[in-house]
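Quick illustration, no need to memorize.
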Amino acid sequence: MYKSNYQMTPQSGLILEGGGMRGVFTSGVLDNLMDRGIRFPYTIGVSAGACNGLSYMSSQRGRSKFCNIDLLDKYQYVGLKHLLLKGNIMDFDLLFDDIPNRITPYDYPAYAACEGRFEMVTTSCKTGRACYYEEKHDPVRIIDIVRASSSMPFVSPICYVDGEPMLDGGVADSIPLLRARELGYDNNLVVLTRNRGYRKSEKPTTVPPFIYRRYPHLREAIRQRNALYNERLDLIERLEDEGRLIVLRPQRPIEVNRIERDTRKLLALYDEGYACAAAIDFC
């Protein structure tokens, strides 16, 4: 495990990648930050990163781990049966209604009262571009945004934010480092859910002609997604090597996939995330 120092400044930003169930790595990172009282002026999350980021912003330590591991073991909310029954690879009714409202309630007042900024990323179906949302006071809109940010292409239905059709923010901006820098946050800690050196296939993603036919810009964004993702990783590794960026990521290629259901693997990845964050000295 590596050691590194991070100097917190008013320009500090925390960038949280998605990755489906691989996001339990991020859950471990954020629990360690909360255990040490580490707060960033600005945080931005995509998909699973947005879900984890919400619990971080409300200071609900352990909530993401409970939702992603304990409740998965109990409810088995990921799998093909949900795709066949509800048209979604995950049970969104459970994830974005039962869990935040009844099973392990989300602390909306604590989120509204927190000082840091938090953005969640979606992809506009109309334009194929990333949309960045900040919302602290309207619980319904918060859930609309995070639901849309988590809606994976092909295996989740289109969601709506303010009446606009949206999908997973990872389509247009999987790792929103440039968004943070655009807003003036240039002292960043990036949390990834893949090991260093990982790259997606350069082959464009095939989008069948009958899928998203009303949204040609979305189809093109999906087709180019892998190339854009790899370009962003190239930038991140270069900035990291130059000492201009701190990155937390799994240290080895991981066995956890986006819809992983093996809770032993998930717990091990959570523990790795916690340990990686513990190796950072904040000052």
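Residues 77 and 94 are 8 Å apart (CA to CA).
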